[in-house]
Amino acid sequence: MLSFLINPISLYLIISLLITHSSSTMVQSHYHDHDHHHKHPHVWHKFNKLLNSKKGSRIQGIAELKQYFHHFGYYHHILPNNNHTKIPFTNKFDDHLEDVVTRYQQIFGLPKTGTLDESTISLVMSPRCGVPDHNIINKNPRPTSLLHGVQHYLYFPGQPRWNREIPINLTYAFSPQDMINYLSMPEIRGAFARSFSKWASIIPVNFLETQDYDLADIKIGFYSGDHGDGDPFDGVLGVLAHAFSPENGRFHLDAAETWTVDFKSENSKVAIDLESVALHEIGHLLGLAHSTIEESVMYPSLKPRERKLKLRVDDIAGVQNLYGSNPNFTLGALLEAETSSSFHCIDHLRDTFHMLASLAAFLVICLCL
Ligand SMILES: [Zn+2]
Ligand SMILES: [Zn+2]
Question: Model-level pTM?
Answer without folding.
Answer: 0.79
